[in-house]
């Protein structure tokens, strides 16, 4: 077989273990994200060795922890006629690359504007609220919010990789660096910032807060909209993403399923979230006000009756699927010590937050929070 045929066959074998086709694998996806745990790695290594007739061990999955590096490893094996361990020594595990000084280095020009003014005018509004997107990457999703009032401007931040998720391999922290200049450009100098975000947008708003306060700016208010803290909640497993997509529950509206670009961007976001480990803000940099907005509904009324094949031992899976009590700070207080916390609860489930009529519920909370109810 040619090297390409060998790699294709290898990913057929690996895919059998986790119910994926060879073309479904993305180079930036990790084995952890894909659900190929230690036991499946050992079984897959045994199957690969037997069927491809090259020596492959479970440790090779550890040394090459993502799809792209594992493909390179396989190419080396084929080119060398056997395991690299038997020839030039096993390649070292791929270390994370240091982030470039210029965060835009290697990032293609965005296909959509980084920011969209959804309501009001930033130059005349008393308060400008910057809202960061969930895993879809679309800040324009907040466009469904009813008008806040004459003195409020809403700005939605779009992902630089919206409609081009194949290039999205940035960390949460680097994404914040891609956005921070856009935020500063739209805020009159000296005015305190109000930042917020839904789901992963909460992580982005937190990291932009870090960048702004480190530069001496004042972030007065942080609004976290159904954003599960990474100190406690896991990244969403790929199996859950696949199941929600299969059932039409992820980002769906009415009878329409989520578009492919949204699913691709969501998947890339989950990979970034997997490696995101936030650290606390210094107490003197913490916004004065931290507002939590939670939904209380789950995506389904009953997981067994829904037919979803998911592991309910994963906390973030329960967070999405099951009805909840009235959540409070949920470990965010460890990252944001000393703030004045406020809690509100809106209608709908996690993926309905910006869908009418639930967007009306969110708008009422935001109006009250901003003092324009």
UniProtKB/TrEMBL annotation:
Residues 128-368 form the Thioesterase domain. Residues 84-96 have a biased composition (Low complexity). Residues 84-108 are annotated as: Disordered. InterPro entries: AB_hydrolase_fold (IPR029058), Thioesterase (IPR001031). Pfam families: Thioesterase. Gene3D superfamilies: alpha/beta hydrolase (3.40.50.1820). This is Thioesterase domain-containing protein. It comes from Salinomyces thailandicus. The lineage of its organism: Eukaryota, Fungi, Dikarya, Ascomycota, Pezizomycotina.
């Amino acid at each position: 077989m040619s090297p390409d045929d060998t790699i294709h066959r290898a990913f057929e074998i690996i895919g059998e273990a986790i119910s994926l086709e060879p073309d479904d694998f993305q180079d930036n996806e990790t084995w952890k994200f894909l659900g190929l745990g230690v036991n499946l790695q050992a079984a897959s290594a045994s199957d690969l060795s037997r069927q491809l007739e090259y020596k492959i061990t479970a440790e090779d999955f550890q040394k090459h922890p993502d799809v792209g590096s594992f493909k390179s490893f396989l190419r080396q094996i084929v080119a060398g006629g056997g395991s690299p361990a038997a020839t030039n020594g096993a390649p070292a595990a791929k270390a994370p690359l240091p982030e470039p000084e210029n965060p835009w280095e290697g990032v293609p020009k965005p296909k959509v504007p980084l920011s969209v003014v959804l309501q009001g005018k930033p130059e005349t509004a008393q308060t400008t609220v910057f809202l960061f997107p969930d895993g879809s990457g679309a800040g324009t999703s907040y466009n469904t919010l009813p008008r806040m009032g004459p003195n409020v401007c809403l700005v939605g931040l779009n992902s630089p990789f919206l409609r081009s998720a194949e290039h999205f391999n940035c960390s949460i922290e680097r994404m914040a660096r891609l956005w921070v200049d856009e935020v500063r450009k739209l805020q009159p100098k000296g005015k305190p910032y109000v930042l917020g975000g839904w789901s992963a947008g909460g992580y982005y708003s937190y990291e932009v807060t870090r960048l702004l306060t480190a530069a001496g700016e004042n972030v007065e208010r942080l609004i976290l909209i159904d954003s599960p803290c990474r100190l406690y909640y896991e990244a969403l497993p790929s199996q859950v993403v696949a199941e929600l997509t299969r059932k039409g529950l992820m980002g769906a509206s009415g009878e329409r399923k989520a578009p492919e670009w949204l699913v691709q961007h969501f998947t890339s976001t989950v990979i970034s979230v997997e490696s995101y480990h936030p650290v606390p803000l210094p107490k003197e940099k913490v916004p004065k006000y931290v507002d939590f907005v939670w939904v209380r509904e789950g995506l389904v009324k009953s997981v067994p009756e829904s037919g979803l094949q998911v592991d309910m031992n994963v906390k973030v899976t329960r967070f999405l699927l099951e009805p909840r009590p009235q959540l409070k700070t949920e470990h965010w207080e460890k990252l944001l010590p000393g703030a004045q916390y406020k809690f509100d609860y809106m209608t709908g489930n996690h993926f309905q937050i910006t869908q009418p009529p639930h967007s009306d519920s969110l708008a009422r909370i935001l109006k009250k929070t901003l003092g324009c109810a």
